[in-house]
Amino acid sequence: MREERHVLILSHDVVGKRMAGPGIRYYNLAKVISRHLKVVLAVPHESEIRDLEFSFSVQIYVRKSWSSIQPLVDRADVVIFPSDIASDFPELRNCRSYLVVDGYDPLLAEWLALNQQAKTEEVTNHWFVRLEQLSWQCLVGDFFVCASERQRDWWLGILEAHGRINPFTFGEDPSLRRLVDVVPFGLPEHPPQATKPTIRGVWHGIGPRDKILLWGGGLWPWLDPLTAIRAVSRVWSQRQDVRLVFPGVQHPNPWMRGIPTWNEAARRLAEEFGLLNRAVFFGEWIPYADWPGVLLESDIALALHFDTLETRLAFRSRILDYIWAGLPMIATRGDATSDLVERYGLGVVVDYKDEGGVAEAILQLLETPKSAWAPRFQRAQQDLTWERAAQPLLEFCRNPRRAPDKVALGNRLGSPFYMNEIARLREENASLRSLVAGYERGRFIRLMRWLHRVKRRLMRYSFR
After folding, report:
1. Which of 25-29, 130-134, 245-249 has the lowest mean pLDDT?
2. Are the C-beta atoms of 13 and 19 separated by less than 8 Å?
3. The pTM is what?
4. Which of 5, 166, 332, 449 has a C-alpha 20 to 30 A away from that of 277?
5. Hey, how many other C-beta atoms are within 10 angstroms of the C-beta on 73?
6. Cα(326)–Cα(321) distance, integer angstroms
7. DSSP string computed for 132-184
């Protein structure tokens, strides 16, 4: 029997017919928590929810419209939201609900990766905005969750810089698990079931006996689909039954469709090798209901990425899908999910940009019957269910508490020096841009005075 406590989960990503990792996460967390408590899942108005079954209430909200979620927040005992929602709805800070910030997605690291090709001066102002948003996220939470112990260390550092590790939070719990804990992605409790053919015999050029190499996610800048294509070009010289499939190059969230991807570069490379629509295939985005069929029809999964900050912090949700389906995989080292592949022995871990290693691993895994992997996958599947993953979050929702430093410090919470310094730097950055723009209009003396003030401040802070 469900308890009376009300939990509101705010998803910033679409939930419905087609979903990416964030939408899948909040849909499944809502399912788990709704077995014990009353849950409302609030999703952006672009969501297509009619094709999903829900064991909880689903409400639509308008992005950045406080009036569209305020009634839901007012009724909730606990509100769970991804970190960026804190800055989209600053009104959350003054609500009576207990607030859980989900920091599983390293958004600042992703933002830097998405903008790495832009000129530094073009993105600096937005970077200051991102820093201010990060500060709001750190100050507003009563409890924080993330996807791995590696992410937890990162969050602890950020929270310390914002004054959240203090005599009050440390005194309540020296381990700080009551402030930040790990809630990774999980696996459904029941094995995947295919409802209809999805790729074999459906996609032109892919026959019933071909070997499908699955790239399960998008083609974001921090991922490395080009190495996968180069590796397949090597394998092609030995066997022409391999088919590398990218079924999701178009993000289902309309707000994400303008972000940079490897889509065009990957298509060009496949065409240069003469493999486009022969050994390399691209789709748009597989409906969520058809995804189990894609997993079961595949022979090997690929999860390749570059050596970046995003990699260090990432938790690849698609790796969990591969584990769910018992699908052996080839993964680049360096992130938390490649550690899972190694820990349970679920495939081959390769180095960055190692096309030769990937090609060799493909040939090796194609010669190994999938049945040989079964015991290893069974162990991982038992350990990594959504029910287990969600336990720290469920425990907080059952017994919510105000963070002790928020009680003791109130509006004084946080690091005033840090916050004031960010504000001053933003003002001085804008002032510098204005002065440089007006340089030819006789403002040289003002510019020199500004530089002299900055020099004096830097010298003063160097002695603190």
Report:
1. 130-134
2. yes
3. 0.82
4. 332
5. 21
6. 9
7. HHHHHHHHH-SEEEESSHHHHHHHHHHHHHTT-SSHHHHHH-TT-TTTEEE--
The rounded Cα 74 to chain-centroid distance in angstroms is 28
**What are the C-alpha distances in Å from 382 to residues 188, 253, 386, 439?**
10, 32, 10, 66
Model confidence at 126, in pLDDT bands (50, 70, 90)? Answer: confident
Higher pLDDT pick, 397 / 460:
397
Which amino acid belongs to residue 99? L
List, as one string, the DSSP characters of 343-407.
Answer: HHT-EEEE-TT-HHHHHHHHHHHHTS-GGGGHHHHHHHHHH-BHHHHTHHHHHHHHS----HHHH
> Which alpha helices (DSSP H) does 188-243 contain, by range?
225-236
- Which residues does 214 contact at the CB level (< 8 Å), separation at least 6? 245, 247, 294, 295, 298, 300, 301, 302, 322, 327
| pLDDT per position as a tens digit, 142-151 | 999 999 999 9
If you average pLDDT over residues 172-187, what whole number do you get?
Answer: 97
The secondary structure element, H or E, covering residue 17 is none
Residue 261, CA distances (Å) to 224, 255, 451 in order: 10, 14, 39
Task: Read off the tokens for 319.
Answer: 């790796």
